[in-house]
User: Which sequence fits this backbone?
């Protein structure tokens, strides 16, 4: 009865609304100026990925004649039209906010200028820099019958140049902007604080040096966004690693899906590029500023402007771990919860480091989805293997846009003596688990770490996640079975504590929702709080609608995409959806069920999306420790009270900021204060 198109929101439009909330952080006057600039850059980078994957996929559907409609009733062509309208407004706002922020930065003696506006000394420095550093790297490419149009890399910055020579017909050339050089260049100038110019502006200023004997009629910076989704041959892939490497090479040549150009009064180069790339006006985005404004992320690191950034947050170490000499002793005594980034990720790193050198540790087994470029965890695993431990690592080489990094680390692990599994054909391994097997006296003891986020010590500073250490025997047994399932031919066992996708997780979620429905029908208080990144799975949404219609109160904290519509009469009138967008990226997946007074809380690696529940290896695990359960419940309640960085979704899919009544609650600030208290009130 709830399966009607008017009860669902389109995935792509919902994502664009999320990116709009990210962009709005750039327009928050209470936020430090360089932090506002960062959010402009983040929104731009997000949009690039959206075109590379989501828009590219829709275009492929149109070209293939696939008439499939989404739950909201839109086919691919209709979605592309709606996306185009929304993105053009978003791009307009991006450049408007960028202009405002760059203007405000001048009040703090930070200038991003064009070459012509520099002082004489500045222009002289730029000219010397051009000839000494930039000119040797430039390669102008003629485009004519003898010189075909070059293959341009995805998102590379280029200059299209229109040339004339006497009465000869116009000529065109492409001038790639060297990616090996910084995009934003500081110009020494004692008269101002900090002066910057863009690399492409320097090249444009001196472009005539590259085309001697020709007159330059027009120069337009442009960039092509290509389809970057990897196509793995699931039927014939005997070697998954080889298939991924093959697809990575193909990614560079993917079909063009977007053309970005700096706006020009002349149309020749615009028409020329559209024709070359076989695109139409809908694929063209003309902008009134620099191409790819994600480059301004580099300005965030300016020295000497700390007042224009947030005060640094120092991740805390809970008081029970500060002086612990042996992590295994602490974990054996009781379960430990860490709340990142408010609490440090270092205990997770130290968990592996200690295991690497502990003579009692026999084996380490771990999943890796995304790791940092200089991963402490990977180095510790390699050290463990070199020390004679049995180390088995499941590295997911299809983690989107981290494929090359993961392949690099996987090979280094193999060289160190680790046994490496490069993921599973047909299923991405997204669950986060580390299992350490230790010989203690006359028995084997298992220690397990599980989390909602990746084993990445860099993103752990900016992503909000939870992780749990436990020595629970049943969890340890499940962990062993989990790795046996991944590494061998073992069928999924009868789990004691864990729930694992793709077999069982969707059913468990629906079972838990059904239990709340039963309590509500008995006159008890049915209540669900679910926090995650995205809610898209149709089966789960229909089950939530059923629960709402039968009196279950449902609070959803969904950072990004949400296809569910709240507040629909007789459908979702008991459902509220909010999104928190702040300094940190909300990333944890937390599920709370009132359970008739015997409250249950679960943590998970999975969002409620079909891909997570049906196409990935994911984990859901219960919180059994009453103290930790109360702590997580308190964290959820703080998030539900947020009236500073929270948005509420309306039934039409639009969002409004939560009205600031009473005491101001910024949940991220509050959670950091609580982490400080748990650390004994002092920074570590």
Assistant:
């Amino acid at each position: 009865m709830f399966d009607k198109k008017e009860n669902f929101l389109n995935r792509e439009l919902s994502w664009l609304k999320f990116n709009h909330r990210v962009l709005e952080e750039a327009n928050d006057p209470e936020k430090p100026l360089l932090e506002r600039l960062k959010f402009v850059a983040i929104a731009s980078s997000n949009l690039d990925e959206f075109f590379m994957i989501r828009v590219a996929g829709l275009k492929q559907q149109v070209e293939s004649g696939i008439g499939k409609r989404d739950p909201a009733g839109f086919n691919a062509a209709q979605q592309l039209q709606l996306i185009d309208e929304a993105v053009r407004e978003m791009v307009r706002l991006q450049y408007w906010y960028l202009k405002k922020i760059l203007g405000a930065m001048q009040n703090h003696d930070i200038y991003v200028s064009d070459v012509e506006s520099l002082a004489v000394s500045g222009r002289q420095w730029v000219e010397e820099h051009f000839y000494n550093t930039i000119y040797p790297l430039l390669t102008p490419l003629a485009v004519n019958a003898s010189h075909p149009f070059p293959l341009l890399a995805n998102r590379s910055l280029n200059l299209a140049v229109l040339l004339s020579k006497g009465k000869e017909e116009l000529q065109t050339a492409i001038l790639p902007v060297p990616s090996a050089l910084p995009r934003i260049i500081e110009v020494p100038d004692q008269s101002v604080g900090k002066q910057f110019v863009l690399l492409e502006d320097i090249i444009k200023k001196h472009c005539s040096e590259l085309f001697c004997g020709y007159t330059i009629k027009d120069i337009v910076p442009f960039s092509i966004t290509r389809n970057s989704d990897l196509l793995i041959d699931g039927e014939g892939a005997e070697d998954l690693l080889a298939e991924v490497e093959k697809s990575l090479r193909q990614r560079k040549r993917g079909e063009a899906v977007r053309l970005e150009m700096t706006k020009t009064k002349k149309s020749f180069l615009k028409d020329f590029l559209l024709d070359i790339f076989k695109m139409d006006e809908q694929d063209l985005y003309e902008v009134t500023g620099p191409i790819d404004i994600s480059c301004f992320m580099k300005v965030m690191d300016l020295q000497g402007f700390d007042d224009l950034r947030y005060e640094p947050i120092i991740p805390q170490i809970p008081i029970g771990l500060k002086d612990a000499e042996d992590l295994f002793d602490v974990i054996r005594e009781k379960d430990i919860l860490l709340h990142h980034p408010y609490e440090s990720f270092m205990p997770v790193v130290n968990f592996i480091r200690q295991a690497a050198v502990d003579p009692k540790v026999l084996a380490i087994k771990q999943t890796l989805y995304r790791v940092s470029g200089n991963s402490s965890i990977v180095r510790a695993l390699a050290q463990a293997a070199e020390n004679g431990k049995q180390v088995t690592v499941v590295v997911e080489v299809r983690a989107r846009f981290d494929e090359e990094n993961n392949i690099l680390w996987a090979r280094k692990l193999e060289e160190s003596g680790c046994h490496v599994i490069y993921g599973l054909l047909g299923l991405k391994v997204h669950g986060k688990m580390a299992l350490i097997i230790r010989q203690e006296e006359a028995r084997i003891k298992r220690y397990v770490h599980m989390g909602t986020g990746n084993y990445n010590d860099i993103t752990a500073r900016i992503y909000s996640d939870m992780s749990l250490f436990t020595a629970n025997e049943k969890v340890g047994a499940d962990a062993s079975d989990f790795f046996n399932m991944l590494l061998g031919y073992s069928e999924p066992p009868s789990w004691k504590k864990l729930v694992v996708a793709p077999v069982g997780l969707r059913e468990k979620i629906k079972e838990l929702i059904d239990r709340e429905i039963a309590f509500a029908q008995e006159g008890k208080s049915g209540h669900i709080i679910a926090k995650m990144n995205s809610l898209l799975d149709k089966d789960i949404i229909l089950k939530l609608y059923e629960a709402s219609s039968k009196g279950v109160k449902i609070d959803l904290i969904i950072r990004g995409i949400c296809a569910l519509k709240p507040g629909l009469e007789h459908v979702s009138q008991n459902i509220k959806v909010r999104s928190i967008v702040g300094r940190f990226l909300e990333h944890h997946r937390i599920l709370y069920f009132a359970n008739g007074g015997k409250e249950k809380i679960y943590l998970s690696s999975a969002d409620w999306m079909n891909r997570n529940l049906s196409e990935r290896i994911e984990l859901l695990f219960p919180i059994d420790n009453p103290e930790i359960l109360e702590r997580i419940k308190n964290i959820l309640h703080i998030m539900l009270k947020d009236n500073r960085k929270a948005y509420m979704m309306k039934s039409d899919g639009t969002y409004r900021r939560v009205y600031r009544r009473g005491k101001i609650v910024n949940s991220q600030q509050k959670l950091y204060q609580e982490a400080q208290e748990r650390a004994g009130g002092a920074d570590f």
Observations:
- The two ends are 55 Å apart (CA to CA).
